[in-house]
Design a protein that fits this description.
- The complex is a heterodimer.
- Chain A is mainly α.
- Chain A has 20 helices and four strands.
- The longest helix of chain A has 32 residues.
- The radius of gyration of chain A is 22 Å and the shape is globular.
- Chain A starts with 10 loop residues before the first helix and ends with a helix.
- By secondary structure, chain B is mostly helical.
- Chain B has a single domain, classed as Methane Monooxygenase Hydroxylase, Chain G, domain 1, CATH 1.20.58.
- Chain B contains four helices and no strands.
- In chain B, helix 3 packs antiparallel against helix 4.
- Classes of the chains: A mainly alpha, B mainly alpha.
């Protein structure tokens, strides 16, 4: 009766879970101490001390989880079983968890100051963030449709609340409501797909579904299609992307950064596992679907981003386009394709968090710098933020020698290798579309540096930016990551010992690829 | 067909009994007809009002707390049935589940979620 419970394998998830459960309690205890004017270490507890304590506790847990994840990367696969495998802690899971934890740590570091700026400095923010993070970590690890759905909901529901965290702002409320309705709709579709797959194959376990997968059976195909549509909503891929601009615009800026990176990482991680393990026998049928999703996402995302006047909306469409680039890795469907996608997710996290951090820093007294033109003259008022923003934009556009270039490079080489191996011209077409779209994206990515460096700041509207120490740290981390991964990429990246990122991505991809 | 006879009898008896009571109450019951009473759902509320009404958010807090502990009870029953088979694993697992719920309750309490005023 005793199930196989390898607790050490899931210890990073346990750290995050403990944080998510204890943080609300810590918040109310500290609030009570402030109320009763208790003192600690000879000083009366005030709001700043409470916030600092909460942030330190959160970051400590996350860093412990990250160290544990990276430290155990090479260990063999650990399954967490009840009567059948529900969670697989393999290299793919550990790679995804590391990226997710990095994204969460950076978000927490930016948020402490940002929340105080918008007058929403509540400890519940971090509890919701950690709860969502736990869902994401489990999502990438799920080898069972039930676990997959539970993790997806655990990821999504706190994110809905986070999107509406700025309660006083109508836009934030709108964002939360839209995300909630569309997100529930997507979850319902995915759940219906899971039910149909269970009906067709008689199992909820991904590996068993692959065995019972019958491409002739309409029930199986419908189930697979509904599951894919559910995922397409979560990764905001065209034509399931309409919610993204509104939600990204309205949500608090640091939450938008977290949504744009972590949700994508987790959803793509789970998508890789579902496609490569559970739906593997249907790969040929799904190839066409993914091909069109990729082409549409890239093209529509980039073209729509050009006409945006709002920075966050522009970044939202840019994130749709990047989802399209990543889908190329799914289309390739080999180890090198998935490795390219995973590497891209890592790089994308640094670029996107960096860009949103600059926007978060520019928020003053609850007023956001929303329009792109409002960034005019940023190089005078805050030169470092302008430099980091420029680096992020160049990297997102894929200009060598920055990290974004290598992300696209590995996706492209994966596609071309596969195309030559099987003599398939449609993959070549996909690669060409990717390159053309990178060229289109320059039109809007280069607009920000132009506005920041070549326009005069306008009188009272000058963006006034005084970043907190933690926010500056995040800017440094993102800038260094973009430059270092770019200058010494992949095969010869030997940073801090022997963390070869692209090799790690290959190892991670090998966990599921045929 | 014979095995459905019981079901048919049950349906017949059931609907017959309901019809009987309806007829009896309409014949025997005392009646006072006035406008308010002719409206459906006479529970002291007007049936036709604007749906965009505000209601106190405290009702929501109570309802959510109720559902959480209701579901907890539903979990506890099957657990209690197989408790012996699960042994220590089941005991510790339920202890963790209950302590998570307790922390949630403590949070709600300290945050003032249980105060009506």
């Amino acid at each position: 009766m005793m199930p196989n419970l390898d607790l050490s394998a899931i210890s990073p998830m346990i750290f995050v879970a403990v944080g998510a459960i204890l943080l609300p309690l810590l918040e109310v205890l500290l609030a009570r101490m402030i109320e009763r004017r208790r003192s600690w270490l000879g000083r009366t507890v005030n709001r700043e001390m409470a916030s600092t304590a909460i942030v330190i506790f959160t970051v400590l847990l996350l860093v412990l989880a990250l160290l544990r994840t990276v430290g155990t990367f090479d260990l063999p696969v650990a399954h967490f079983n009840l009567d059948h495998p529900m969670i697989a802690v393999d290299q793919l899971t550990r790679f995804l968890n590391a990226v997710l934890l990095i994204s969460a740590i950076l978000t927490v570091l930016v948020s402490s100051r940002y929340l105080a700026d918008i007058g929403m400095d509540h400890g519940e923010f971090y509890a919701l963030l950690l709860a969502s993070l736990l869902g994401m970590m489990l999502l990438g690890a799920a080898t069972d449709l039930i676990m997959l759905f539970l993790a997806l909901e655990l990821m999504s529901i706190p994110i809905y609340a986070l999107a509406g965290f700025q309660r006083s702002s109508l836009k934030s409320n709108e964002s939360a409501l839209k995300y909630f309705i569309i997100g529930s709709f997507a979850s319902a579709l995915l759940l219906y797909g899971c039910a149909l797959l269970y009906g067709a194959t008689g199992t909820v376990e991904l590996a068993e579904i692959a065995r019972g997968f019958d491409p002739e059976n309409p029930l199986t195909l419908l189930g697979a299609a509904l599951v894919l549509v559910g995922f397409a909503f979560k990764i905001a891929s065209v034509p399931f992307h309409q919610w993204a601009p509104d939600v990204y615009e309205g949500a608090p800026t640091t939450v938008t950064g977290f949504m744009a990176t972590a949700v994508k990482v987790a959803a793509f991680g789970a998508l890789i596992r579902v496609v490569a393990v559970g739906l593997q026998p249907g790969a040929e049928i799904m190839y066409g679907v993914f091909w069109w999703l990729a082409v549409l996402s890239m093209t529509v995302g980039n073209v729509m981003a050009i006409i945006q006047q709002n920075t966050k909306r522009m970044l939202a469409y840019s994130s749709v386009a990047h989802g399209g680039y990543m889908l190329v890795g799914i289309c390739v469907g080999t180890q090198s394709g998935y490795a390219g996608l995973l590497f891209y997710l890592l790089v994308y996290t640094f670029m996107t968090i960096g860009a949103f951090t600059v926007l978060a820093i520019l928020t003053r007294d609850g007023r956001e710098v929303s329009r792109i033109d409002d960034l005019a003259g940023l190089h005078e008022t805050h030169p470092f933020a302008a430099i980091v923003m420029t680096l992020c934009m160049f990297s997102l556009a894929g200009i060598p020698p920055l990290a974004g270039f290598w992300g696209k490079w590995y996706l492209l080489t994966g596609a071309v290798e596969r195309a030559t191996a099987i003599g398939d011209t449609s993959l070549i077409v996909l690669a060409v579309v990717l390159v053309m779209n990178s060229a289109i994206s320059l039109a809007y990515y280069l607009r920000l540096p132009v506005v920041m460096y070549m326009r005069e700041a306008r009188g009272a509207d000058r963006p006034d930016a005084t970043a907190g120490a933690l926010q500056t740290t995040v800017l440094w981390v993102c800038a260094l990551a973009i430059v270092l991964i770019g200058v010494v990429p992949g095969d010869f990246l030997i940073l801090f010992g022997d963390y070869d990122l692209i090799a790690s991505a290959r190892v991670a991809a090998s966990a599921v690829s045929p | 067909m014979a095995e459905y006879a019981g079901l048919g009898l049950f349906l017949l008896l059931g609907s017959g009994l309901v019809a009987l009571f309806l007829v009896l109450t309409s014949v025997l019951g005392p009646k006072l007809r006035f406008a308010e009473k002719q409206e459906p759902f006479e529970c002291g509320e007007h049936p036709i009002v604007s749906p965009y009404q505000r209601f106190n958010v405290k009702f929501y807090m109570v309802a959510v707390s109720f559902i959480i502990f209701d579901v907890e009870m539903v979990f506890l029953y099957p657990w209690a049935v197989v408790f012996k088979g699960l042994a220590w694993y089941g005991f510790v697992g339920m202890l963790i589940f209950l302590s998570v719920l307790t922390i949630g309750l403590a949070y709600e309490w300290m945050k003032g979620g249980l105060d009506w005023n």
